[in-house]
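Lab notebook: predicted structure, single chain.

Context: the supervisor wants predicted structures on file for every construct in the current expression panel, including those that have not yet been purified. This is the next one on the list. No modifications to the sequence; it matches the entry in the shared construct table.
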Amino acid sequence: MSSACDETIGVTPDGATWLASAGTYPRSTLALWEERPQAPVVLPCGSVFDIVSAPAMFGRLMLDRLWSEGPGSGPVAAFRGRTLLFAAPGTAQRLPSLLEWEEWSADGRRDGRAATVPPLLCHGTGDAVTVPALAPALEGASTRWMVAPDTRHPWLPGPEILLWAAVRAARSAVRISISPPQDQDAKVYDVTKRR
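Prediction complete. Output recorded below exactly as produced.
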């Protein structure tokens, strides 16, 4: 499967069926989409998929890592400045503790440069999210598919894979300096005005 990260595509009929299966009334959701394919819909998480919501740029870094170095991703959407990564059910419950453990182990590293993962919002059982419309969004839309669902049984990454992607993305975003850290208490003198 090739990366669909770089183009906005629409949801296939099989993908729409899969998405609608998350709701209480799948046929009503499909009927709504038949009538209004440009309508985003709110769907519950926890039974068919969980959602990991990352800040837009960090989510894009995670997505790039998943496609360039990993197994790829499941469906991914952009929604109001966030990247929504569709994940296997149960991920929302497990990922926060894995991230907490990773940050703890990162703080113990000798070089002192912990690669920090920004806060990820995990939506699982009891939560609901807005998913983009089935049809491709207009250029610049705040809600659109980055990787649209295209099958009735899409592969969804679990918590370990998303942890791996988050850590890799954080490490790639860290700027490494060969200079020692600045002494915050050091006195700084302006030497440009010397005679």
